[in-house]
Write a structure and sequence with these properties.
Helix content is about 25%, strand content about 20%. It is α+β, with helices and mostly antiparallel strands. The protein has a domain of about 210 residues: Vanillyl-alcohol Oxidase, Chain A, domain 3. It is globular, with a radius of gyration of 21 Å. This is FAD-binding PCMH-type domain-containing protein.
């Protein structure tokens, strides 16, 4: 039997960090005051075009394939990572291999049908497969070119390929764990990962991005060009007002990484979570850790993590955790091997999910009680702090700079039991808010999350709103949770 990725992570005591990046290669909405920068566009005064796109004309312009709903292979072409969204009904999938293909898609379909970019296809809400819309598949733009301490990555690249290329070159980029997650969605939502506390979020390493905006223009956003847009691309969420075609990141030298997993006796989850919350903020940024609470009649608990350094250096740090594990494992690996260790299986998974954010420590007993009785549900609590908090909340669109941890709430589901699974999910997510864990992480996007815009973006939501109105007045890339 193939071991599913989260089965692996649960057994290892390791969370699904960054695993469900929004995975739309599309960019987010930023904004502050009506801007005088180059990103400002006048409100549209043109009438909405009538009729469907001219699909045959688009087919003739693409270097890749255009697959329509009545073409052979469409069921596979439209497929997202989560089989729960196999019933979504886009009308076409454009397989893009260069930026000009994306421009042709926007020109042909913009304002006629919904448009969504797809990189890894991991959107928790299935937004990268819009009903009656066009999927702009950027998977054909997947190059990973390392140049010294810089790497240029096509928006369609998946993390497994990114890590392989970087490890070969002796370089490192902090990012998520799932090998099939697209670099685009992960980066645009922030990018929480196992080296986050030492090297920052994935978006913190971004130096520029090339993207097609709603007007069909190919733009480069950086600190010196399209600065408002660059601000938004770093944590504003994927899918809002453009399609990123490539990213340029600053990398660091690939480190040696010691990974560890601690398992604790049944019934101890609340106490271990309390101890973990006291312990992690006092550890050096070289240490990243998470804690996984698995629901059921008896809540089980595992603590895992990664340390940039040797096993000997890690030993005294683990000794400071005021909880005694029943078993433990530890090994020192190269950067590439460590990323493989966290990856697990790339098999498609059927699930529902959501998130919360821990800013101030929460009552471990209350959180453990929430997991009790929910068989198969995991609360994957990933540590933040360190380099994440060295950036001010308003310096990028990623708001949760001062948080202690993110909580991913993950539950297996099927088409038949999805309503009850979502009900259980909502109950736990609401309970977490009552326990003091508010907010949310946009890369675990949830259509049912109350007050989702404030939860994801905090005080940055207003700036995102304004820039969205400026850049996409006609709603070319609008969807249910446009920032």
């Amino acid at each position: 039997m193939t071991v599913g990725r989260r089965t692996f992570l649960r057994a290892a005591g390791l969370g699904a960090v960054g695993a469900a990046a929004a995975a739309c290669g599309a960019t987010p909405p930023p904004a502050r005051q009506p801007s005088t920068s180059a990103t400002s566009l006048p409100p549209s005064t043109s009438a909405k075009p009538s009729g469907p796109p001219d699909w045959e004309a688009l087919r003739g312009k693409l270097s890749g394939e255009l697959v329509l709903s009545d073409d052979g292979g469409f069921a596979t072409a439209k497929r997202a990572f989560n089989p729960l969204f196999d019933g979504n009904k886009p009308v076409a999938v454009a397989k893009c291999t260069k930026p000009e293909d994306v421009q042709a898609c926007v020109e042909a379909a913009g304002r006629r049908v919904p448009i969504a970019a797809r990189s890894g296809g991991h959107s928790y809400a299935g937004y990268s497969a819009p009903d009656k819309g066009l999927v702009v598949d950027v998977g054909g733009m997947s190059q990973v070119d390392v140049h010294g301490d810089q790497v240029v990555i096509g928006a369609g690249a998946q993390l497994g390929d990114v890590y392989s290329a970087l490890a070969t070159a002796g370089r490192c980029l902090p990012a998520g764990s799932c090998p099939t997650v697209g670099i685009a969605g992960l980066t645009l939502g922030g990018g929480i990962g196992v080296l986050t506390r030492k090297y920052g979020l994935t978006c913190d390493r971004l130096t520029s991005a090339q993207l097609v905006t709603p007007d069909g223009q190919l733009r480069t956003a950086s600190a010196d060009s399209e600065s408002d847009l660059f601000w938004a691309l770093r944590g504003g969420g994927g899918g809002n007002f453009g399609v990123v075609t490539s990213f340029t990141f600053e990398t660091v030298e690939a480190p040696t990484v010691t990974v560890f997993s601690l398992h604790f006796p049944a019934g101890s989850a609340g106490d271990v979570l309390d101890a973990w919350q006291r312990w992690l903020p006092g550890t050096p940024p070289e240490l990243w850790s998470n804690i996984v609470l698995s629901g059921g009649s008896s809540v089980s608990c595992r603590v895992g993590g990664a340390f940039v350094g040797s096993s000997a250096q890690l030993t005294p740090l683990l000794a400071e955790l005021e909880a005694t594990p029943s078993s433990r494992t530890r090994k020192t690996l190269s950067y590439g091997a460590a990323m493989d260790y966290f990856s697990g299986s790339s098999q498609r998974q059927t699930f529902v999910g959501s998130s919360r954010i821990i800013t101030d420590p929460v009552d471990g007993g209350k959180v453990s009680d929430l997991a009790a009785g929910h068989q198969g549900m995991d609360l994957l609590i990933d540590g933040l702090g360190g380099a994440v908090g060295d950036v001010a909340p308003t310096d990028t669109a990623f708001w949760h700079r001062k948080a202690l941890a993110s909580i991913q709430v993950y539950a297996p589901a099927t088409s038949a039991n999805q309503p009850s699974a979502r009900k259980s999910l909502s109950t736990v997510v609401s309970g977490l808010a009552d326990a003091g864990a508010g907010g949310g992480y946009v890369n675990y996007i949830d259509p049912d999350l109350p007050d989702w815009k404030a939860a994801y973006y905090g005080d940055n939501a207003g700036r995102l709103d304004q820039l969205t109105r400026t850049l996409d007045p006609d709603g070319v890339f609008a969807f249910a949770q446009t920032a």
